[in-house]
Amino acid sequence: MLKIFWALSLMLVSLQSLHAEEEVVKKVVYDLTTGDLRRFEQRLLSGIVAHKTYYQSQLQELEVRVIVHGDAYKFFMQDLHATPYLHQHALVAQQAALGKRLRTLATQYGVRFLVCEVGVKKRKLRPKAFYPFVSFVHNAAVGLIDAQNAGYAYLPLR
Known about the structure:
Elements lengths: L1 H21 L2 E8 L4 H21 L3 E8 L20 H19 L4 E5 H6 L11 E4 L2 H10 L3 E5 L1
Parallel strand pairs: 1-2, 1-5, 2-3, 3-4
């Protein structure tokens, strides 16, 4: 009887350990629509790094997706020529630095940037003008629905 008790106890501990391992990965999807450069830098660029650092300090992983639509397309374009954004002087002045930071988030932090195709077409933007680390999703709603159904926490960034 004692052997059965210990075997059951060991199985319970193993099951709890497996469950704890499943919870180590946290997921967040940012609903990015802001065109405000300062808010974009503070809340998204710096925010993602801070959140990733926090979870790493807790020995957990944070998976990040960013659904890009609204006024946020301009931050993800490597070529602003022939776009309505070319005359936004603050953006043009910081474009190279923003691109490096975004590339770092994509390559070193594993952040997935998903741009709404419907909005790109509506604004007559060229998909090839976007950074190569950007992917496209049919539309923002589909990207958000898929992410939330995959267990991603929703964070609006307007």
